[in-house]
Design goal:
Helix content is 41%, strand content 17%. With 416 residues, it is α/β, with parallel strands linked by helices. The strands form 6 sheets. The chain has a 6-stranded parallel β-sheet with strand order 6-5-7-8-10-15, sandwiched between helices.
C-alpha cells in the first residue's frame, strides 16, 4: 500500500491509501503529470513535506496511481532532506519503490523548483555518444569504432531496461553529458506480433529522453520498409514510398512515423538510416548464408528458392561499411533519411554456388518453387555519397571470403 523510501518518507496511490496514525499525507493530485506545473506550487509541496519530516512525522506523498507526481515530489523532498542532488534522489526513490516509469515532465518541474535544471545542448562540442543495444552484432562493431574517436558508452541491458521507462536513460544522458544516442536495442525476436509493441515502447522511451535533453538520435531502419514491392529488382532511393510486408517491415514503418512525428512536433534531430541486409564477422544474419556454409562443409545438398518474381536477390552490406555510415552521419550532423547498400544485388543461387567453390565442397545446389513474391531490393546510396560522403567499400565476395576465413580458416591454394 505504501512504498517506503526511507523509514519516514513513502509514496502511495491515493485510492489505496487508508488512514494511518502518525502519518502526514501529502496529496499532490492537484498537480499535473505533464508540463505546466508552476514553480511555486512545486516548491510549496516540497516545503510542506520537508517541514513535517523535520518535525518527526512520517510523510506519504500520494497521487492517483503512485507513479509519477508522487515519486517526483518525494525525490525533491528527499534531495532537500538528506542534501543530495536531485538525480541521486531519483535513483534512491526508484531503488526503494521499484518504480521505473516516472514521467520526465514532472521530474523536470521539480528540477526547476530545486534550481537544478540543466539542459544539454547538441552541436556545440565533440560528440558524446550513448549506444543502446551495444552488446549485439551491430552494437559491438559500432562501439569499437566510435570509442576510438569519441566518448562512447553502451550500457548493458541489465543496467538499462528501456521497456521499463525512460528515467534510467535520462539519468545516464545527464550524468555522461550525452548529445547523441544511437538506438540499436531491439527485442530478441524481431518478427513476432509481440515485438511490434515492444519495439515501439523502446523507441518511445528513447524519443522522450532525446526531447527532454535535446539529444540527436541516430536510428537504423531498414530495407524492409520496401519489402512489399513485387518486382524482379527494385532500385530504392529515399523518394520511393514505403511499402512494408510482414510484422518487421510494418514495425519499422511505425517507428519511422513516430520519429517523423517527433521531428515535426518537438524539433527532434534524427539521422535515419535504411540499410540493406547486414552481414559480417561475429554475426548470424542473414541466416541463409550460415546455413549454406554449414551444409557445404558437410557436403550436403543446399536448397535455395525461386519465387513468383524470380530468384531472391539481396543487396548485402558489410557491417564495417554500415559502421562507417553511422560515423559519417554523426560527424556531418546529418538530419533526414538515407538509404544504404552496396548498390549491387546478388542471387541466393549464386551465393550458394560460390560458397561451394570456395569451400571445395561436393554439395549440389537445388532450387524449390515458392508460391509468393520475394522482396528483391537494391538500395540506392547516391544520397549518402552526396550528403555525407559515404559509399560502400566491401563487395559481397570480399565480405563472404572474410566470413569464411573466420569460420573455417584461410582458403587453401587449390580453392577457386
Amino acid at each position: 500500500m505504501i512504498r517506503w523510501i526511507t523509514q519516514n518518507l513513502g509514496t502511495a496511490s491515493a485510492s489505496n491509501l487508508t488512514t494511518i496514525d502518525d502519518v502526514f499525507v501529502l496529496d499532490v493530485r492537484d498537480l499535473v503529470d505533464k508540463n505546466g506545473n508552476s514553480v511555486s506550487n512545486i516548491k510549496e509541496k516540497i516545503e510542506k513535506g520537508l517541514h513535517h519530516l523535520q518535525h518527526g512525522s512520517r510523510v506519504v506523498v500520494c497521487c492517483d496511481y503512485g507513479i509519477s507526481r508522487s515519486n517526483a515530489i518525494a525525490a525533491g523532498i528527499l534531495a532537500r532532506h538528506i542534501s543530495v542532488s536531485f538525480d541521486q534522489a531519483i535513483e534512491l526513490v526508484m531503488r526503494a519503490t521499484g518504480e521505473q516509469e516516472i514521467k520526465l515532465d514532472p521530474l523536470r518541474s521539480v528540477r526547476i523548483a530545486l534550481d537544478e535544471e540543466e539542459c544539454l545542448q547538441t552541436g556545440e562540442s565533440s560528440p558524446r555518444i550513448l549506444v543502446t543495444g551495444g552488446n549485439g552484432f551491430v552494437g559491438r562493431a559500432l562501439v569499437r569504432q566510435l570509442a576510438q574517436s569519441y566518448y562512447t558508452i553502451a550500457p548493458p541491458r541489465g543496467d538499462l531496461d528501456l521497456t521499463a521507462g525512460s528515467v534510467t536513460l535520462d539519468l545516464l544522458v545527464r550524468r555522461h553529458r550525452i548529445n547523441h544516442i544511437v538506438h540499436l536495442a531491439n527485442p530478441h525476436v524481431l518478427t513476432t506480433i509481440g515485438a511490434v509493441g515492444e519495439t515501439l515502447t523502446l523507441l518511445r522511451n528513447v524519443l522522450e529522453v532525446c526531447k527532454e535533453n535535446r539529444v540527436r538520435l541516430i536510428y537504423p531502419s531498414g530495407w524492409e520498409v520496401y519489402s512489399g514491392y513485387r518486382t524482379s529488382n527494385l532500385f530504392a532511393n529515399e523518394a520511393l514510398p514505403l511499402l512494408p510486408k510482414g510484422p518487421y517491415g510494418e514495425t519499422k514503418l511505425l517507428c519511422e512515423n513516430l520519429i517523423q512525428h517527433h521531428r515535426q512536433v518537438h524539433g527532434l534531430e534524427c539521422g535515419l538510416l535504411r540499410s540493406s541486409p547486414l552481414y559480417g564477422d561475429h554475426g548470424d544474419r542473414p541466416r541463409f548464408i550460415y546455413n549454406f556454409i554449414s551444409k557445404a562443409l558437410r557436403n550436403e545438398q543446399i536448397t535455395t528458392h525461386r519465387y513468383l518474381n524470380g530468384e531472391p536477390r539481396l543487396d548485402l552490406l558489410h557491417i564495417e561499411d554500415f559502421v562507417r555510415a553511422v560515423t559519417a552521419v554523426i560527424e556531418a550532423n546529418f538530419v533526414g533519411a538515407l538509404n544504404l547498400g552496396s548498390g549491387r544485388a546478388v542471387g541466393t543461387m549464386e551465393i550458394a554456388e560460390w560458397i561451394v567453390r570456395q569451400t571445395g565442397s561436393s554439395s549440389t545446389v537445388e532450387s524449390k518453387e515458392i508460391d509468393d513474391y520475394a522482396a528483391n531490393i537494391t538500395m540506392d546510396f547516391s544520397s549518402a555519397m552526396k550528403l555525407v560522403s559515404w559509399q560502400p567499400a566491401t563487395s559481397w565476395e570480399t565480405g563472404l571470403r572474410q566470413l569464411l576465413a573466420v569460420t573455417i580458416g584461410p582458403p587453401s591454394k587449390d580453392r577457386g
